[in-house]
Design brief:
Helices cover 86% and strands 0% of the residues. The protein contains five helices and no strands. The structure holds fe (ii) ion (FE2) (2 copies).
Length: 140
């Protein structure tokens, strides 16, 4: 699917991840968890490779903070992989992951995106969308 705007594309990913979390928690369908994990990993990689370097012009500290939060999310995903879904601690860790993701998404949507909207040119945004879409088509 092609999106016109960079922020629409990133926010669409965020909404998709939130939806998959919900579906996993409601139905305990591990395929939803695996799909969510893949979405998250690809989304974070795309942001780090193509969006964050440009967004640093808008606010370097927010971007550095965002990378730290991505690291936290990746480490929780790693811990969940070690536990496996039948482990008693899995749901507690999953809730931790869900909170970390929701917090991070909220900061991006309410702090970083508004700032970078004012800073990046249309062409830069278009280029980021193209690169992220290319990366996704390879990964998905
Ligand atoms: Fe992010
Ligand atoms: Fe994001």
């Amino acid at each position: 699917m092609t999106y016109d705007g960079l922020y629409e594309m990133l926010e669409h990913d965020h909404a998709k991840v939130k939806q998959l979390f919900k579906e996993y928690i409601e139905n305990e369908d591990i395929s939803k968890y695996n799909e969510m994990k893949k979405e998250l990993v690809v989304h974070m990689k795309g942001e780090e490779e193509f969006y964050y370097p440009k967004a640093k012009k808008a606010d370097e500290d927010l971007v550095e903070h965002g990378i730290e939060e991505h690291e936290k999310v990746r480490s929780l995903i790693g811990a969940l992989g070690q536990l496996g879904e039948n482990d008693g601690e899995f749901m507690a860790k999953l809730r931790e992951l869900k909170m970390a993701v929701e917090h991070h998404v909220d900061e991006e949507e309410h702090k970083l995106f508004p700032k970078s909207k004012d800073t990046l040119s249309d062409n830069e945004e278009k280029e980021i969308v193209e690169k992220i879409e290319e990366e996704k088509s390879k990964a998905m």
